[in-house]
Amino acid sequence: MSNFQFTRRGLIxxxxxxxxxxxxxxIISPAFAQNQAGYTNAPAGGTVTLGFNVPQxxxxxxxxxxxxxxxxxxxxxxxxxxxxxxxxxxxxxxLKGNGILGKKVEFVTGDTQTKSDxxxxxxxxxxxxxxxxxxxxxxxxxVAVAVQALCQDxxxxxxxxxxxxxxxxxxxxxxxxxxxxxxxYMSGAALAPVLEKMYxxxxxxxxxxxxxxxxxxxEEAIKSSTEAIGWxxxxxxxxxxxxxxxxxxxxxxxxxxxxxxVLNHYGGNMVNSLTNAxxxxxREKQVNGKxxxxxxxxxxxxxxxxxxxNVKGIFGSTNWHWSLTDEGSKAFVKSFGEKxxxxxxxxxxxxxxxxxxxxxxxxxxxxxxPCGIVEALEGYEFDGLGNGKTLxxxxxxxxxKDVLVVKGKENPTSEFDLLEVVEVTPVDQVTYAPDHxxxxxxxxxxxxxxx
Amino acid sequence: xxxxEVKNVNKxxxxxxxxxxxxxxxxxxxxxxxxGPNGAGKSTLLNCLIGKLEPDTGSVTFDGxxxxxxxxxxxxxxxxxxxxxxxxxxxxxxVMENVLIPCFAKRDGAFRMHAVGSVASxxxxxxxxxxxxxxxxxxxxKDVHSGALSRGDKRxxxxxxxxxxxxKLLLLDEPTAGMARADTNNTIELLKEIKASRDITxxxxxxxxxxxxxxxxxxxxxxxxxxxxxxxxEKIKGHPKVKEAYLGEAAA
Amino acid sequence: xxxxxxxxxxxxxxxxxITILAPFILNPFPTNSAMAQFNGGYPxxxxxxxxxxxxxxGFNILFGLTGYLSFxxxxxxxxxxxxxxxMMKLLTMNVIPAxxxxxxxxxxxxxxxxxxxxxxxxxxxxxxxxxxxxxxYSLAYSVLTPITGGETGLQPKNTDPRILDTLFGxxxxxxxxxxxxxxxxDSYFWSVGDWSFVxxxxxxxxxxxxxAAFYLSIRIFRSPFGLMLRAVKSxxxxxxxxxxxxxxxxxxxxxxxxxxxxxxxxxLVAMDTQVGAERMFWTASGEVVLMAILGGAGxxxxxxxxxxxxxxxxxxxxxxxxxxxxxxxxxxxxGLSDFMVAVIYPFIGKGWHLTxxxxxxxxxxxxxxxxxxxxxxxxxxxxxxxxxxxxxMSAQATPAE
Amino acid sequence: MxxxxxxxxxxxxxxxxxxxxxxGLTLIFGTLGVVNFAHGxxxxxxxxxxxxxxxxxxxxxxxxxxxxxDFLGNPLKVDMPYVNDxxxxxxxxxxxxxxxxxxxxxxIPVMILIGVIMxxxxxxxxxxxxxxxxxxxxxxxxxxxxxxxxxxxxxxxIPTPAPDVFRGSFDFGAAVxxxxxxxxxxxxxxxxxxxxxxxxxxxxxxxxxTTFGMVVRAGMADRETVGLLGINIDKxxxxxxxxxxxxxxxxxxxxxxxxxxxxxxxxxFLVLSFVVVVVGGMGSLPxxxxxxxVLGILESLASMSAxxxxxxxxxxxxxxxxxxxxxxxxxRGLMGRKGVMEx
Lengths: 451, 252, 401, 343
Prior knowledge:
The complex is a heterotetramer of chains A (451), B (252), C (401) and D (343). With 401 residues, chain C is mainly alpha-helical. Chain C is built from 18 helices and 4 strands. In chain C, α4 (95-117) packs across α5, α8 (201-222) crosses α9 (224-234) and α12 (282-295) packs across α13 (302-315). In chain D, 69% of the residues lie in helices and 7% in strands. Chain D has a two-stranded antiparallel sheet. In chain D, strands 3-4 form a two-stranded antiparallel sheet. Chain D: GO terms for molecular function: transmembrane transporter activity.
């Protein structure tokens, strides 16, 4: 049996399954291929393949590993294994624990190396070789934007992992891409009222900003929202991504007359800059008659662990935290904790949600066709996934939900108990218009089913 | 006026006067030997002639053209080639390739972007190189790695590399250093043949008086960086100053 | 044939055959078998094989022939990529202008960098090239964000002007990289029983360019110019005293290899329309060094093999995860299967860097001539008669210091 | 002006880290003639000696605390370090608090051992190989070492704080009667600077005033001649490799409170330290130290916001720009010798 087939994009499994029973190779027109499948990597047989593309090497490997754990848990739950986790608390009841649309969920994994090239290579291999119908994961905005654009072209759905830059659902948004995680703007909007309450409205802020896109959007968001509460921005200084010792950036802070230091850093940068700032004794200083304070707009528990005791008492925002007591969070922490022995990180939470949301959308749409999924997710409101009532906004494919303001815990009881939730900022406070200037310049375009 | 004129050349290394007021006038088509005890400045002088070192003062003219201030490859293109004390060849290349390189330098000048045609198709150069190798009796070894050659063969190869450029002036820095008697005699014969077969000026630095007196038409004795005396071999042999400064030591 | 001597012509034919038949060679396992994991015959990886092959061939012209170890070649690849994507954004999604401009821009950039760096040799040269590349990377990632897109890189957007496409009615491929309407991502599939093979347009476009690049590199190796470059490596001093000016030779080699890198960068964009600054990070420059050495520096085919080897590792071995591993050993008794998984797991999947590092050390220690030397040793075992089938190889037998 | 003084102070501190790493690198290059790309990895291993020791000191048995609960609602398991059991809670926690300084004692023998094993097992076979091969094999080794560390310790940075008494900062300004808070500097960084100075001084004194050092220096100048004198220079060189490894190691140990160590910190420093060594001049010990301080200070000055505003991005490229300028104007770096590493 031999079959020679032409299609716009690669799926080896599907092509193999659609045998024409001819001895002579036949060239099949694109139109025919479309009639047959209708979209890229349409699952043939009893399984559907998801692509989990996370950093497994490089500095974010631990975060990637936690994401992978959550993915495996989500697959287990989707296939009816385990205790079902958040499937039980999810407001939609379309998922039945029999896979997605009756097809058993399988997955492939890849290493993004937190490099956009490597991430795309890995995603392409999942799409072209393994027939993945959806790609998800990642731990940086550079990777998210790069892979999102790829998925748009290839005609598969991209469910972003940890990406916080405004651009992902702003100027670089794509119809096939969805983000559950919050963003820089939301961090600013959530933090400002708490900062005002804690530190007053007469403050002078000094920003250290990672010198790349995410840093820029975060700086802009925090700056505009703190200036709105009356703070003055004394200085903003860009620091190289490859910087490891921030002392030369921290040392001049006190001289500037600032009394708050905002560290628009993530990952290793954040761990080092915060450690350095605390080393300089900034937190024991008095400036302008006030205690000197440090703010870290985006917190992650894994990074807080790296900074150790230095995070104590420092405010920041986060997408989710395991100490939340709503039913969804409790169910997730329980099934994750029982399987792996420690509580999940926010990265694990967001990717678990994304997997469930994708599966649920497919169930509700009754198809794996990306356009069907996009339709099912756009404007979809749900609850029970740990963040309260949540909306997947149609205009930019961004989730709108409550944002957590957290602070480093003074007396942690374990190595996971590093942050405490100070306030749950309600969703209304962090919602913005789709054409907000910080998100301008993008265009979702049309959903692309590929094929 | 000679082909190579060295006037008032001085060179100091820190506190050491390596060359002091060297004046030389080397006549075309002669074999001119420079002898002198160790540390007399012979090699330093040679290095100044090929652009490896820059003298502090003085001038060097070759064929009426100034030499100083030019880069080594420019000096070579003027027609000066040098054989080094330890043979400087392309150890990673075959014998044939070693000879091809100076052939190309002779034909194409210091740089030519000749990136597409194959070496093998350059028949004129190949012929010249093969002829040269047969002249020095090395054609049989043309595909051998030159790094694997014996020292004597390396020396011959280096001479072939110099001669194939048809230099007007050939500088030889102790061409028989470290050779066995038989090899030395072969080299003397080779140099005699070379001299006999073409118009060429040679400057030889040598310790071995047997070599010097077999080949040289004129001899300059250098001591402590300064020429002591210059004359024909016969006269040098009996010169008292030379005996005192050099031959006395060599005889001992 | 084509002005090549017989052994070179054979080698070229061999490379042509391998590249054309790559879809078969790289997909030896039935699609649904457990071994399908090791199939590498999908468009993206095949494209990467040939593109990084071009990159490594070009690097080898500099390093393999002259011995000058550049630690900044990724900068030329990156610059080529940026030039190409801007061509696509501004003019047309047709890959031809993009590829041409990438070669030109990379050539100009390498001319500047080479002109300055080649004033020094040895490790000083390496550090100068490294410094230029790191500056390019740092600036592209940060202050040059308006031109380079910084962290998120550049992709074509529907808002791009694409003047030529607009002028000539958009072209047939609807905003996709194409060769006069032929979409780079179009593929033919051929299923034979359980096997399936994919023939991708982009791959063949890149493959033709790689064959051309390989052919050109053979010609350079065998040319008087190539001989001069080997002379530089062997004894630069003798070269100068032989009346040859080594500087323009090394600069020419540097620019040629920079243009090869630019071609590779342009092709990367042509196949996958996206550029990120990490492409220029020093580890990317290190990678091409590894490719050349692993395959066999100074040999013709070595760098291509090295590129294929490393890319295969990066894309295939890194994807093997624990559950796949457990699947393989499921047939074994429980304790034994756990043991096997525990032993192998650190070396595959996320541990692929470790394996690569170990392999790399082993090659440098035991096979200084790289995979080519390994192949020759094996061949010699069978033939009992070592054969010097590759002129460049001879230079490798006695490494120059 | 205050800002400039502050940055120079800062640069001295940064420079001392660069100088320490570059010193070991140059020591290895100068004695063995080997370009060691795994030197950054040695620095990293040193830092992980500190991590290991602090893990060893906090080796614990668990005690169930019924009054508290963990994240799953089960009774909380509290770790009780054995040191507390042995020495009592007060001394025990002091020992744990001082784990970083204690690690130096732990790191020196460990690093010398690692260095000697590396030299005898691998580097020795590369003396006669081209520099390119040395670079490549040690680069491979660096990858392997860091992947092994990553396998055991994870990719995340691991906090290893300085002893409590050294946290906080010293107010220079106030000490000399200027306004407070203008020129402050963390205690630990001052210690690091002092420590680096002592180590650098010790290495120089060792090479200058001991017979061993004199032989090694003679060997650096002319290996063959020293060999002809019948001195077994190889054995001494092995020891020098161990010493260089130990210098890198203690530099790593002391660095841990400044930045939490992670598995790739060696690679972060590698490129930079090579730039430092080359700028200083391959094989020149004073050159390496001088270049380390010069580049540290210039890097600090370039990070001042007034400078960045003037030339955007200068802080990203200053080191490389200086390296290019120095190499073009001084062909062999600041204090390099002729003919080293130029073939």
